[in-house]
Amino acid sequence: MKKLGTAVAVIAAAGVAVSGCSSSESEASSSDGVVKAAIITSGPVNDLGWNQGMVEGAEKLEAEGLIDLTVVQQDSGATSEQIAQIVTDLAEDGHNLIVGHSFNYGEPIKGVIADYPDVMFAYAGGFGDITANLADYSQPFYEASFLSGILAGDLTESGILAGTAGFEIPVCKAQIESFADGARLSYKGPGEIQLRPSYIGGWSDAAAQTLEAVNALVDQGADQFTTCGVDAATIEGAKQRGVGVAGYAMDQTPLAPENVVSSIVWNLDEVLRAMVADVEAGNVDPAKYYDVDFAEGGVDVAVNPAFADKVSPETMALFEEYREKIKSGEFEVEYKGGA
C-alpha cells in the first residue's frame, strides 16, 4: 500500500507523491494485472471508525491480491478545489478506481469525472447519487442501529434516547430513527421511548460542538446515544457523563469500554469487492449504487462483552432473534431517512 500524506500536503507535493511512479505503475492496472485503487479519507486513518474501517477494508482486498492500493489521508482543512486536484492527480497517475470516502466529496468529484470516462469514481453519498462514471455506496447503518436500539431500550432508565449526527442527511436520520424503533421493542417503561436527535452542522471538525450537544442532551435526561459521523466526540461525551452509547462504523469499545454498549460494524471490504469486480469487467458507466446491506454482510453489530450481564437475558434473546430475521430477510427494518 502507498500512503500519501494529508490532502494539503499531497497538493503541495503532487509532482513527487502522485506522479513519482514508474511507467509500469501508471497503466490502468499495475504490472501484475490488479486494479489500481485509491482511497481518499476524510480524517485520520487510525480513527477507529469511519476512515480506519475503509482503509482496513481496502487492505483486505490488497492482501487478497485484488488491488494495488494508494491511500490519501485528508485533513479537515482541505477545500473542494484541493479535493478535485487530488482526484485529478490520482486519475492522471493511472488509478482506475478512486473512492472519496466522504459525503462532502461528491460535488468536487463530479467536476472531474468527465475528463476520465474510463475511471470509476465513487463517493459516500448514501442515497443513490450516481452520475455517469461516479458511483455511490449505501451506508445501511439503520439496520444495525435497530439492533443496537434493542439493547439500549433495555438499559435506559429515563426512556430518553439521543442521536448525534453531522447533518440531517438521509443516512444519519434513518440510523437515529431506527435506534429508537429498536428500543421500543425492549423498553418496559415508565412511559414511552422519547427520541432527541441533534444535528451538529459539521463532522469530525465539530468536536467541541458535539460535546456541547451531548452535555445538553444528558442534562435533558438522555442516557443512551447513537451517533452518525461525529462518533469520537459523542463517545468522549458519553464517557465523561457516564451514559451509554453505540459505536459507529467499527467496534469502538476500546474508546470507552464502560460506555460503548454495542457498535455498528461496517464491512467495507464487501462494498469495495463489488466495485473492483465492475472495474475488472469494464462496467464503469453507467455507474451503480452499491447497496450491500445487513443480509449481504455489509453491516453487523458487535456487542461489548462487558454488558453481557447488564442486558437482560430476554432482551439478548430478542436481539439475536431479530438479528437472524434481518439476515434471513424475514424482517425488514423500516427506513425512515426520507428521500
From TrEMBL:
It comes from the Bacteria. Residues 1-19 form the signal peptide. Keywords: Signal. The keyword Signal applies. Pfam families: Bmp. The keyword Ligase does not apply. GO terms for cellular component: plasma membrane. Coiled coil: none annotated. Residues 35-332 form the ABC transporter substrate-binding protein PnrA-like domain. This is Purine-binding protein BAB2_0673.
